[in-house]
Amino acid sequence: MALQSKTKPKKILVIESTCDETAAAIVDEQLHVYGSVVASQEHLHEKFRGVVPEIAARAHVERIIPVIDETLQRSGLTLADIDAVGVANTPGLAGSLLIGLVAAKTLAMTLNVPLIAINHLHAHIYACRIASGRDIFPCVGLVVSGGHTHLYRCQSGATFELLGGTIDDAAGEAFDKVANMLRLPFPGGPALSQLAEQGNPAAHRFPRSFLSEPDRLQFSFSGLKTAVRYAITGPGGADPTQVELSWQQQADLAASFQEAVVDCLVDKSLRALQITKLNRLCIGGGVAANKRLRQRITEECHSDGIELMIAPMALCTDNAVMGGLAVEHLQAGKFADLDLDITAGLVR
Ligand code: KG4
Ligand code: ZN
Q1: Span from the CA of 249 to the centroid of ligand 2 (angstroms)
Q2: Are 206 and 297 found together in one domain?
Q3: 233 shares its domain with 94
Q4: Whose CA is nearest to atom 8 of ligand 1?
Q5: How far apart (Å, rounded) are the C-alpha atoms in residues 303 and 306?
Q6: Sign, Cα dihedral of 31, 335, 161, 91
Q7: Are residues 281 and 323 in the same domain?
Q8: Three-state SS for 333?
Q9: pLDDT in tens, 161-210
């Protein structure tokens, strides 16, 4: 909860470099956002149809200082105004995380201000707090991104309990891979969901993992991906990108695939709400930008009397504003040491 301080609210410079976006933002204790910059690397990874870790790390090296400079300029502030530095140090690509961490540590040391470690997945959920201006705790949090699909019981800005997640591909990863099979541009999620609007979601009945196991708060999208592949090629295992499909066939595959993913996300989120007996759901991450997911979960939550908060489009994909979660740590006096390391894999 934001502190109502009589003195000037403290300002945190937040740095985000977990994957292929170099971002910085300045947020104060009252969650006022002074300025935010996101430098996307999409065009660098496009021809590889996926994020190439070494290219991402090198691009962060080039962009990190200009992005911080521009954030200060847009905010009308200087480094002397900064009271703490926050950095997303987990999870993500190791090389990418290290660039943001080294920049953050250097600033914290030279400015002699505290360093705050931010969990990138918790921050995706916290985007709902920043955007709404209202308290979101306690809630069930769903993070649906390119790298993660996870459900949390969120008690406070400092207490996120992992309830379950994907056992293989993340939802966004499945979107991107199926989009590849359909030869859609990278990143595939937005292109596939646009195509799906013209397709029939009932054209193919693709598998929905774990829906028959209501107590299992897990996802699996790998079998779904394979089912789409076989629907394109037949069981022979040919290269799906070499199969000629009509535009309508592509749209039907996209719509049927999207419907299967959305069914799983909606079902397990509602189940998590029942299990935790909570009545607020907060959703963040790149896939939260998906129109069909937004529509379906809005309908379901409305009929179940659940308060739904979805991060606004601009705060769904990676950005540093959501790292305003650092304010919660600042107010709890939870600071990191200067020997803080990164953790690339999932931490709870
Ligand atoms: O949160 P994010 O920017 O990065 C990670 O932390 O992974 O999410 C990126 C992912 C990509 O897989 C992208 O295809 C997906 O979000 N995405 C979408 C949509 N917009 C972005 N997936 C489905 N529908 C969308 N409209
Ligand atoms: Zn993310």
Answers
A1: 31
A2: yes
A3: no
A4: 286
A5: 8
A6: positive
A7: no
A8: coil
A9: 999 999 999 999 999 999 999 999 888 999 999 999 999 999 999 999 99
209 shares a domain with 265? yes
Asked if 227 and 295 sit in the same domain, the reply is yes
- The first and second tokens of residue 14, run together, are 């937040």
Residues 138 and 265 reside in one and the same domain: yes
What is the 188 CA–ligand 1 centroid distance (Å)?
8
Which domain CATH number covers 68? 3.30.420.40
Structural contact between residues 175 and 246, judged by C-beta atoms closer than 8 angstroms: no
Q: How many residues does the chain have?
A: 348
Q: What is the pLDDT of residue 347?
A: 65
Spatial CA neighbour of 340 closest among 68, 91, 82, 116: 116
User: Above pLDDT 70, what percent of the chain?
Assistant: 97
- Give the distance (Å) from ligand 1 centre to CA of residue 144: 8
Residue 43 has pLDDT above 60, yes or no: yes
pTM of the model: 0.94
**b/e code 306-339 from CB counts within 10 Å (16+ = b):** bebbbbeeebbbbbbbbbbbbbbbbbeeebbeee
Query: What does the alpha-carbon distance between residue 310 and residue 294 come to, in Å, rounded to a whole number?
Result: 8
User: What's the domain range around 74?
Assistant: 11-127+317-332
Pocket around ligand 1 at a 6 A CB cut-off = 19, 145-147, 172, 175-176, 187-190, 193, 285-287, 289-290, 317-318
